[in-house]
Amino acid sequence: MTAVVAGRRTRRRRAGTVTVALAVVAFALFVLTMMVGSFYVSAWDVITSAFHLRDEPSVDFIVRDLRLPTATAALAVGFALGVSGMLFQKLLGNPLASPDFVGISSGASLFAVSSIILLGAGSAMVSASALAGALVSAVLIYLLAWRDGISGYRFILIGIGLSEFMLSIIGYLVAHAELYEARQAMTWLVGTVGQAGSTELRTLLVALVVLVPVALLLQRPLRVLELGDDTANALGARVELSRLALIAVSIVLIGFATAVAGPVMFVALIAGPIAQRMVGHSGGGIIAAGLVGSIIVLGADLVAQHVVPVALPTGVITGIIGAPYLIWLLATVNREGRGG
Amino acid sequence: MSYVRRVAGGAIAALLATTLLAACGTSEPNDDAAKSGPWSFVSGNGKTVTLDATPKRIIASGAEAAALISFGIKPVGIYATGPVKDDPNLKDLDLSGITILGQTWGQIDVEKAASLKPDLIVADWWPAEKAYSGFESGVKASSKKLLDLAPVVGIAQGDSIEKLAQGYEKLAVSLGADVKDPKIAADKKSFESAKAAFEKAVKAKPGLTVLAVSPSDDLLYVANPKYAPELLDFQRWGLDVINPDKPDKGFPYWENLSWENADKYQPDLLLIDDRAYASTLKQGEKQPTWNNIKAAKAKAYVPWPAYWMHTYGEYADQLTQLTAAIQKADPDLT
Amino acid sequence: MTLLETSAPRLETAPRHRPGAGLVAGLVVLIGVLLVVCFFSITLGSRGVGVPTIWKAFTDFDPASASETVIREMRVPRTLIGILAGAALGVSGAILQGVTRNPLADPGIMGINAGAAAFIVFGIMVVGVQGIGGYVWLAFLGAGVATVTVYGIASFGREGATPVKLALAGAAVTAILSSLTSAIVMTNADALNELRFWQVGSLAGRYMPVFWQTAPFIVLGLFVAMLTGRALNGLALGEDLALALGQRLRRTRLVMFVTVAVLCGAATAACGPIVFVGLVVPHLARFICGPDYRWILPYSLVLTPIVLLGADIIGRLVVSPGELQVGVVLGVLGAPAFIALVRYRSLAEL
Description:
The complex is a heterotrimer. By secondary structure, chain A is mainly α. Helix content of chain A is 79%, strand content 0%. Chain A has helices spanning 2-35, 43-50, 57-92, 104-119, 123-145, 152-176, 182-190, 198-217, 219-225, 229-235, 237-261, 267-279, 286-307, 314-336. In chain A, helix 1 (2-35) packs antiparallel against helix 3, helix 4 runs parallel beside helix 6 (152-176) and helix 9 packs across helix 11 (237-261). Chain B contains 10 helices and 15 strands. In chain B, strands 10, 11, 12, 13, 14 and 15 form a 6-stranded mixed beta sheet that branches. Chain B is globular, with a radius of gyration of 20 Å. By secondary structure, chain C is an all-alpha fold. Chain C has a single domain, classed as ABC transporter involved in vitamin B12 uptake, BtuC (Orthogonal Bundle). In chain C, helix 4 runs antiparallel to helix 14 and helix 10 packs across helix 14. Chains in contact: A-B, A-C, B-C. At the A-C interface, helix 5, helix 6, helix 7 and helix 14 of A face helix 7, helix 8 and helix 15 of C.
């Protein structure tokens, strides 16, 4: 008995250490993003300026006005995607069941871009539309995939189809929009940080501050869910309610994140499994998944903006990172012999 | 289709937008004391911009920069909507010492712009879009931060290139340009004589009709002179530029003809959008109905300087080219 | 997948319940409808052309007449391309849905659109190809390469290319290709322009050369496709059963994928990515004739051109004197049709 408790404690300690380490890395990348650009700003200047420790007009304009919004967007979008992906994957018990992979991101993006092109919507409207889009596509997948419960692979197949479908409509919309130059339209097809206005970003930040603690509170029922529907059913309606609440949380997060950055592909898909591998299976790892998401998006944006010769949308880089992961997953599927 | 439209009409916006914010022109043409008082200028949107001293470090959008440079005012930075080497306004100018802040529509390197410490931004005002070049909707939010660096002034895009050139002349004078400089005066004089030659050539060809078009893969865009300042100038100077009878409601810069109806207007001379002249013409020529336009069949075409001109010098060159085409054209083409 | 147990018995009985004679008659009626649609496709358009002029365009063509030029050199090729592309998309959609058992399978999922787009921008960047005639080959090659890659990745392992692995491989390949495409497009304005035109999906602006470039592939592909009905029925029973029935799964799948690649590749090359028809029409066919692929395939073959040309005609009429691209019309009309199909239970039982 004591051995079990001790083991659990060790695992929890490991989870704590890993999470702190991830937070440090994310913060370092956050600062690094604000250091580079057309002008180098030292790490110390970035920190003092970003946190208003010191006023120095020449640095402040570059750091606070120009770089901080993009860096914050990358941090927040990555965190939201990571958390949301982790929740989906756990609730549905499938590593592929992430909202960006099954069409929820692209649905949100479709609604956001439609509201801009067709209705000329302002910032608040864009966030609301993205949220509505995420909800609609979630409901659509549910309706399409429901057969006495959501069976894993059928759900994924339908989700991929839906995602493809939404993206092709976005393609048509932007090809016909006079409002946007084609490059701008790329935001809504591949996703990039640093494009949207400050209202969308503020909405996302508020959502994160409110919803991540909620998700943490619901972590316990979540762990029960991992034992499978049968066990969960035995525990009754409260679990069902938690499940619904958690899905709602992740849909809200993905919707607002998409309003800020468009459908940044694969971040939600890969953040969860990476975090899980690092933290182990003790905690829910929600925070860790969020931090991994932030690290991926911050890193991808650094590469997209500064390493390649021409600035690219963030989603181009995450797309290239995500593909090998999918192929690796394929290899695992093979080994397990569950071809569907 | 939207691309052409964009280029055509929206692109007006784009073109404008692209004009670089050539910031902080280090131009110090003359340092006489008279220029050092407070400076003010009535911008294209009707608002007056007032500064403590005459601005010296100017960032300008591409075409606007070209206009300033033609008066000897050199901006410190320029933002363009496309590669500077392809920009009709900038490609032949000496841009040494000017920082290029952007070569893509909607993207301006504001960090670099800040380092130039500009005190004025010069960009056309687009009344239809209620925005200055470079700050239209769709532009990256971070690019719009350029507005935090300095006030913007510009001439309103209106109904005449001549007036636009005059507006920039006035702006340049207020910034300290010496328009009596022989080179500048020569530009203006060559414009006046090109205009006279143009009017004479038009008068010599009564009954000559002209149509301005931008052929694309899926549609033939027919320019609506009402929204093309240079075409309005031509009409004012006597040339019969056909007014399309059904301009697009949402985007009245053009009437959109499907290629099936390409023969709707039968001008004697075609003005073809010169912003990508060779490829635009090729897109027209491969359509089966292209040759059902009599001017196209007779290969009576001439480049149309669409929406981009800002200066007397370039206007003079373009007018001379048009005059030659008008002299060659046959008003009784069948 | 769990759905097999319920759907298998139905598959066996369904053909018996539906007498072949009725289905043959239905097919004949549809061919009649297709002919009527073709007639309208040639007579209707943003330009009004009278029947006598049309007659003259075929019997005594005068190139100086704009109306006759429109008929001979614009509407006829457009109609022919519409028929071929429609047939190719419908039939390949039916095969894809059957072989992947994914009710939402369409060319997009197999990476075909992404492959074609990537090759077009490569071609424009590297060789400077311009115009639809030039990049038909590129699109074709791209579609082929993408399909082969997707299939190749998915066939590793014991059981070969299963639906899930195909979808995963398709998503992975699409991700890589579209990332590369965006990267090129961001840096090359020519590529962006050409891609934008191609990407809309339209029958307009495609003339005879495009038809001759793609027709041989589509005709050959359709011929092979029509022979796969029995094999698809076998696959629908589930892999274990199909194996038990003596099918050589790997080879069957391979033949089908090559066919799909040829058909979709050619159609996509000719018209750009056209969504919805390949997805929805096979379901419509299944709704009419039940789950027997020997009927679904010919019905898709005839139904899809009807839908595609119909949408194209609507596009020509609604915004006269301009045009709305067929892809847009299908997007608008297809969405409600798609939702209606979704609500219909059999979609979920593929």
